[in-house]
Design goal:
Strand order of the largest sheet: 1-3-4-5-6-7-8-9
Helix content: 10-25%
Distance between the termini: 49 Å
Oligomer: single chain
Radius of gyration: 18 Å
Number of helices: 1
Structural class: alpha+beta
Number of strands: 9
Shape: globular
Largest sheet: 8 strands, antiparallel, barrel
Strand content: over 45%
Order of helices and strands: HEEEEEEEEE
């Protein structure tokens, strides 16, 4: 076999495996997750840990963009705050990173960059993402 054929074969294998990795990640991610812990870091680097309850849901789909939802309450200085996000997530090829496209009620999309899957097992998930220079970290436990 020629050297160029070998290089071509390796490139094809890498491309196929990255697509397979995306589908495997979507499959593992798919379902509903209880929010066990929520941490927020502001632009100055101060990190706050909140008592929280709620769920995150991720769809498994064949498309590049799949549905996600966050429905949670958290206690912030004695007051209960609510976060309800709906939109799409997109896995970045060949990495554990993702982008969230948050839709509001009028259909406007906010792009939440720099999402990262820190840990993903059958029962546990730890993710983070940036929103307006603020970092959000979630520790989750599978419901179904």
């Amino acid at each position: 076999m020629s050297r160029s054929f070998n290089i071509f074969f390796v490139i094809i294998l890498v491309l196929i495996s990255s697509c397979d990795k995306e589908q495997r990640t979507k499959k593992k991610l798919a379902g509903s997750w209880n929010i066990i812990e929520y941490q927020y870091s502001n632009f100055s680097g101060l990190t706050y840990r909140y008592d929280t309850y709620g769920q995150m849901t991720f769809e498994n789909c064949e498309d590049a963009l799949c549905n996600y939802a966050i429905d949670m309450y958290f206690i912030n200085q004695g007051d209960t705050s609510y976060r309800n996000d709906n939109g799409y997530y997109e896995l970045i090829k060949g990495s554990d990173n993702y982008i969230l496209y948050k839709m509001d009620s009028s259909g406007i999309t906010d792009t939440l960059d720099n999402g990262r899957i820190i840990l993903l097992t059958k029962k546990s998930l730890k993710i983070e993402f940036t929103e307006f220079y603020q970092r959000h970290l979630f520790i989750l436990e599978r419901i179904n």
